[in-house]
Design brief:
The complex is a heterotrimer of chains A (225), B (55) and C (225). Chain A has 6 helices and no strands. With 225 residues, chain A is mainly α. Chain B is mostly helical. Chain B is rod-shaped, with a radius of gyration of 23 Å. Chain B starts with a helix and ends in an 11-residue tail after the last helix. Chain C has one domain. Chain C contains 9 helices and no strands. In chain C, α1 crosses α6 and α3 runs antiparallel to α8. The longest helix of chain C has 29 residues. Classes of the chains: A mainly alpha (225), B mainly alpha (55), C mainly alpha (225). Chains in contact: A-B, A-C. The interface between A and B is large, with 43 and 32 residues.
Chain lengths: 225, 55, 225
């Protein structure tokens, strides 16, 4: 029988995710001291940076799963890739929005051509392309194959884009000198990173299960249709 | 807290987005599982599926 | 080599079809010239400004025109139901990719041969002293554009929404190539005291090599039934 309520492990991870997110946000907002230079606005770093990391991790998973699918042609890899892409889009949009919210009070502008933000925006376009091409194939194997191709090339493109934007920026302006981070800030950031990762794992478990059920539905409709 | 608006908006957006997506995924999963259960029942239970050549 | 012979067969076939009608070539040149004119009108008669943005404008024209050309890459096969024929073509399917690639490069270079002099006249730029360097950048950029474009054109050829999907997939993949080509061209035309264009040319070469390898490697999978 199909289990629709949270399976044991998923429930555990979900609760762990919720708790760590609550603690992380609380510490980030009220406990840790504000940045010397930027003030309280710097607290947005504790949500913006983890979101960016997860957006990138999710994309890497899409890449890995795409390679695995092309090698083994097992649809389960495709399901994981699809799930990670959808979740990745959520984190990517969140990253960009939070980046704007942090940028406006800090630098006075909603957008900068910062290499990481620019690469994130382009990554969003690649993700959208990945999800879009899936909608054009009804046959699960063809769909998985096309998506895998787009996923692999898309991900391979990310480091190239990143490096070229860095070059572009350094030629137009001197690089900013990195400031050292206090341990307090670092630990808060790492904790929130853990929280976001648990959220990703939980969402993946549920989304992959959804992909599996939808896949079985599709199979039956096609067989009897 | 200076720039309070941006900070509140940012954290709120984060929470709303993640909770919404989790809720949406669970809801879709419930609906899909129910649909699958119905399919399994009608084709293996007493009802005949439309593609049945007849007995 | 067998592969090269088959590739050239395809190139000749397509170019012969093209030469007979000249339709597409004329449309592309006209379109590119239109782009240049419109930007000239928008930016005004300030020749200094035009010179500074000329690199970008040239590549905008080339990119838009290139996409027009890409849409038609497999058209001659499509209309005669031939995409299936391409699939069962004996021998290495990479020959199809190489053939289409060379065809696209040649056509695009032909357009550029008209476009660069036109830009020199309209924007009042002295291009003759830099012809060699400009040719190198134009060639490398065109090759990069065509590799990625020809590959994604094959992937999207059967899709109903091809006109949307092709640019969507293409745009993120082209970012490094566009950065390289635009910056190198601008530096050559505006003045390059520190030989910065070297970095961009190296980026273009790396881009071309990486994507050539990936595309030829994955092309058979893209063509699978």
């Amino acid at each position: 029988m199909i289990v629709t309520s949270n399976s044991g492990t998923a429930r555990l991870i979900g609760i762990a995710a919720l708790v760590t997110m609550l603690v992380g946000s609380f510490v980030g907002l009220f406990v840790v001291s504000p940045d010397r230079l930027q003030g309280d606005v710097q607290r947005l770093m504790y949500v913006h940076v983890p979101a960016a990391w997860l957006a990138f991790l999710a994309f890497f998973i899409v890449f890995l799963m795409s390679v695995l699918y092309l090698i083994q042609r097992d649809l389960k890899w495709d399901r994981v890739a699809h799930a990670s892409a959808e979740i990745g889009v959520v984190f990517t949009v969140l990253t960009l929005a939070l980046g704007s919210m942090w940028g406006k009070p800090t630098w006075g502008v909603w957008w900068t051509w910062d290499p990481r933000l620019t690469t994130t925006a382009i990554m969003l376009a690649i993700y959208v392309g990945y999800l879009a091409i899936r909608s054009f194939a009804d046959d699960p194997d063809k769909r998985a194959r096309w998506a895998a191709i787009v996923g692999i090339i898309g991900f391979a493109n990310v480091p190239i884009v990143y490096l070229s934007v860095i070059w572009w920026r350094t030629l137009h302006q001197p690089p900013s000198s990195p400031r050292s981070v206090s341990p307090e800030i670092l630990w808060t950031l790492l904790f929130n990173l853990l929280a976001f990762t648990l959220v990703y794992v939980y969402l993946m478990m549920r989304r992959i299960r959804l992909a599996k059920v939808e896949g079985e539905l599709e199979q039956r409709v096609a067989y009897n249709g | 807290m200076d720039n309070l608006g941006f900070i509140v908006a940012g954290y709120t957006l984060t929470w709303v987005t993640l909770v919404w997506y989790a809720w949406r995924t669970n809801r879709r999963l419930g609906a899909a599982a129910r649909a699958l259960a119905e399919w399994t029942q009608t084709s293996t239970g007493t009802g005949r599926s439309a593609g049945d050549p007849g007995a | 080599m067998e592969l090269m012979r088959r590739s050239w067969a395809i190139v000749w076939k397509d170019l012969l079809i093209e030469a007979r009608t000249k339709q597409a070539f004329n449309a592309m040149v006209f379109f590119a010239a239109l782009v240049l004119f419109i930007f000239s009108f928008a930016l005004g008669p300030d020749t200094e400004l035009l010179r500074e943005v000329s690199g970008g404008l040239l590549w905008v024209g080339i990119a838009f025109t290139g996409i027009l050309s890409l849409n038609r890459t497999y058209q001659s096969e499509e209309t005669s139901g031939g995409i299936e024929g391409l699939r069962v073509y004996p021998g290495d399917p990479r020959a199809i990719f190489l053939g289409k690639l060379f065809g696209n490069i040649i056509v695009l270079l032909a357009v550029e041969a008209v476009l660069f002099p036109a830009a020199a006249v309209l924007f009042q730029i002295e291009m003759l002293p830099h012809v060699g360097e400009l040719a190198v950048v134009a060639l490398l950029g065109t090759i990069g554009f065509s590799i990625v474009g020809t590959f994604y054109a094959a992937l999207t050829v059967n899709l109903r929404a091809r006109e949307v999907m092709l640019p969507l997939l293409l745009f993120p993949a082209l970012v490094p190539m566009l950065l390289g080509a635009v910056n190198a061209t601008t530096l050559i035309l505006v003045g390059d005291p520190m030989q910065d264009s070297d970095i961009w040319i190296r980026l273009l070469i790396a881009f071309d090599v990486i994507f050539f390898v990936i595309s030829t490697w994955i092309f058979p999978i893209a063509l699978e039934e």
